[in-house]
Amino acid sequence: MLCQECKKKSALIHMTEIINNKRTEFHLCQECAQKKEGFVMFSPLSINDILASFLNTEQPFQAAGMKEAEKCGTCGIDYNDFKKSGRLGCGDCYKSFRNQLMPIIKRVQGGAAHSGKVTKRTESDMRMQRRIDQLKTKLKRAIELEAYEEAAGIRDEIRNAEQQIGKF
Length: 168
Prior knowledge:
By secondary structure, the protein is mainly alpha-helical. It folds into three domains: 1-42, no CATH class; 47-109, no CATH class; 120-164. It is built from seven helices and two strands. It has a two-stranded antiparallel sheet with strand order 1-2. Helix 6 runs antiparallel to helix 7 (148-164).
């Protein structure tokens, strides 16, 4: 497809502009797109640029609870090297720089607990274990209220649930 403006070069940039519910599409070459009013060109970010944006580079090392020369005991990388490259040197870096990394990990992932993929069987077992934990809490409450018949029923439910783990 040729550029709609110069009609000479290939259209590499495709834009859609919506003003007052009126949709207009533009197909432009890079030079014509740069000349277009209201269009801002930016270069794509690398993953290192994105990670670096989460790091507070103005924060002094002492405020982060770390000496400037502190390094990972295993690979020798320091936190400043990590900020520049966006990469840790080894698995032990997570322990060495834990205080600095945890806020970043929580911000990027929304939490620090791993909740990755699991097999269907494991997922079923995890769901059953959560149910057992809920039943145990309910059992404890029933005993505190001296509702022993209800507690016996809950106890039986827990036993059945525990027998189901690993069967699916």
